[in-house]
Amino acid sequence: MPALKKQRIDLRLTDDDKRLIEEAAAMSNQTITQFMVASASERAAQVIEQHRRLVLNEESWDLVMEALSNPPAPNARLKSAAKRLQNME
């Protein structure tokens, strides 16, 4: 038994957009709701993935690796921040 749908999103569409979506849903043999949910979910997953992944060119990658391998000595501001964090715990 499929899960009950409990959430609703209302959209305002132009007539052209509505016709386009209806046609695409029909061609996909889906209801408009199925088509809209599948399309929006797919796009949402793409956007989330793009924001979760950091792609670096070779030069940037080398700089990150260098910083991780040879971190700079902590400056006064970093030491102060670390001390404040310890005091909060």
Overall mean confidence score, pLDDT: 93
Helix-strand sequence: HHHH
Compute the CA-based radius of gyration: 25 Å
DSSP summary, beta strand count: 0
The portion of residues forming beta strands comes to under 5%
Tally of domains:
1
The secondary-structure class comes to: mainly alpha
For the largest beta-sheet, the strand count, sense and barrel status come to: none
End-to-end distance, in Å? Answer: 48 Å
Helical proportion, percent range: 55-70%
Total helical elements: 4
- As residue ranges, the low-confidence spans are none
The coarse overall form would be elongated
Family: Belongs to the TacA antitoxin family.
InterPro entries: Ribbon_hlx_hlx, TacA_1-like
Keywords: Toxin-antitoxin system
Could you describe the 3D structure shown?
This protein is mostly helical. Helices cover 66% and strands 0% of the residues. The protein contains four helices and no strands. It has helices at 15-27, 32-52, 58-69, 76-88. Helix 1 (15-27) crosses helix 2 (32-52). The mean pLDDT is 93.
